[in-house]
Specification:
Blueprint (H helix, E strand, L loop, with lengths): L2 E8 L6 E9 L3 H11 L8 E2 L1 E3 L2 E2 L3 E6 L6 H24 L11 E7 L8 H21 L4 H7 L11
Parallel strand pairs: 6-7
Antiparallel strand pairs: 1-2, 2-7, 3-6, 4-5
């Protein structure tokens, strides 16, 4: 597999977390996307590395990309604070738990899309929900979950949380 795809939603309210991510080899398409994300910054879309603390980046190297335009200092601090800490801790925990093989942590990289609602206020919930969603999306990616059969079995009863149509 040249790369894995994961997605997960956690939490509720304005602090809800929705993570989309790619995991793949640094020499493949995810590695290219990783480099492009760091090299091609745009106003309102400041991509950043996931770090446990400054000078301690996680392995696999993880770039966080914003899924919405960051519109102010508060939202930026939430991305560079609780969301960054949550993503970094989830990646590190997935390596520690063996979800991501330790011997692949130097050759893989992750591109992680993070959503921070413009009215999010509770940093503890931002951290908690982003941690849960990131960890679950990594688990889903590495297990190729859901399977095609599971998706087909559940498609007619699935309810989208943001579309009731």
């Amino acid at each position: 597999m040249s790369f894995y795809v994961g997605e997960a939603l956690a939490g509720e309210g304005n602090e809800i977390a929705h993570i989309d991510l790619l995991i793949g080899d640094k020499t493949g398409p995810v590695g290219t996307a990783f480099c492009n994300a760091l090299a091609d910054q745009k106003m309102g879309h400041s991509n950043l590395l996931a770090v446990l603390t400054p000078n301690l980046a996680v392995k696999p190297a993880t770039v966080m990309i914003t899924k919405v335009t960051i519109k102010g200092a508060r939202q930026a601090v939430q991305m560079f604070g609780p969301a960054q800490a949550a993503v970094a801790n989830a990646v590190a925990d997935c390596v520690e738990l063996g979800v991501i093989p330790k011997d692949k942590a130097e050759t893989l990289c992750i591109v992680c899309g993070v959503f921070i609602h413009w009215e999010a206020a509770d940093d503890k919930k931002i951290y908690q929900y982003n941690y849960e969603a990131t960890k679950q999306s990594i688990i889903n990616a590495m297990k190729s979950s859901p399977s095609v059969d599971e998706m087909l079995a559940k498609k007619s009863t699935a309810k989208h949380p943001f579309y009731q149509g």
